[in-house]
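Quick check before the chapter quiz. The format below is the same one you will see on the exam, so make sure you can read both the input and the output lines.
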Amino acid sequence: MSLASHLPALQVVLPLVAAPLAVLVRHTGAAFLLVTLASWAAFAIAVLLWQQIGSHGTISYALGSWAPPLGIEYRVDRLSAFVLVLVAGIAAVVLPYSRRSIEAEIPREQHYLFYAMFALCLTGLLGIAITGDAFNIFVFLEIASLSTYVLIALGRDRRALMASYQYLIMGTIGATFIVIGVGLLYLKTGTLNLVDMSVRLQEMSNHRPVLAALGFLTVGISLKLALFPLHQWLPNAYAYAPSVVSAFLAATATKVSVYVLLRFYFSVFGESLVFHRLPLPEIMLALSLAAMFAASAIAIFQDDLKRLFAYSSVAQIGYITLGLSFDSVSGLTATVVHLFNHGITKAALFLLIGCAVTVVGGSSLSRLAGLGKVMPLTAFGIVLGGLSLIGVPGTAGFVSKWYLVLAALEKGHWWLALAIVASSLLAVAYVWRFVEIAYFRAPPAGLPVRREAPLSLLVPAWLLIAATIYFGLDTSVTVGSAAGAAAELLGMAK
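Here is the expected output.
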């Protein structure tokens, strides 16, 4: 067999092998090189798999000599390929940034540990998106979560440890709910293969254990994706983690959790059970609107820029789940495309905040006063990222909100279209807070002499800002892939 036939396995194996090697070498430079090369290779593999899906359809890869459903299967379809490209792509961009960034935010003796945990986190996130086995989703979810707890706690700020502990508690509760849900499905179907499970569930969708499994999985995954009001772990985790960790998690972790929710809802339980027999769409709609308005309103009153954009992430997750609640191709297209667009936008924003933190020593708004004059590239990049969060035409965020509005109008919900526009005005308010501080306030006295951030930090951040603008102008790749994934999900629905 050719190497190309083993790409699904290599997608997970390469970063998995890099993690223990980074610990064994215990050298910052070597660990950085190993993990960076693994992430670049993973990105190249993700792109190749995405291209293969477009040409030949879904890929099924059996691990070992046991064919599915008896053996473990890696399964790549349009949705999983799209998520793989996002996760691996973000990792490939933020790792070169990390070399300079962690010098200011993580003690040097822990640098090799950072790279090992980053590789493990990447392994878990890629594994979730590629596996076709329900229990393996849980295993990879825990690999990603456990390494994330360490990455957050590596921050110099003592509050990072408390944020990590809070995330650990809530993440463990979510994981418990998920494994209970998977266990109930296994008891009813006798299989862990997602495709086989979906076939067997057709005849027992009204059974109480199946409904209980759906409830446990919904709550558990909602905790992981920080759906309002189960978002309490997220603001502190993003605010106190090292900037490169905040960027990577904001772009990938919650997005992969959304993927898991989509996978179980459409590929396992089926559209009929989730959206027609139960009030889940109405519940999801209400929680999404609450996130969009409440989290955006809270963001306006934050005094720390990282914390402000952390609450913004909670609001943006509301937009993602809002599209899901429509149960239509347009709504699902909006969900999947916003999953991608918000990922690159928020990664860019946190990387740019990291540029400011490296120079200024903090992300409080008072320390960022006058940033537009002394760090013009950093400040302007944050403004462009903010415009994408608002949904200004010409940015990736506009594309997502446009499809959300279209989905609302298709359903005849004019009031929902107006709510989407109104919530975007709240985003204008919190983005304006930064604009006012950066461009209309004088720098505070007593702070170190400011300068523009090093190119090693600016280039990766601006690469993502450029992607935010590019995908706002050319939607053929993002919307095309998202629409294909949405149609495939609805086609698979029972």
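If your answer matched, good. Residues 1-277 form one domain.
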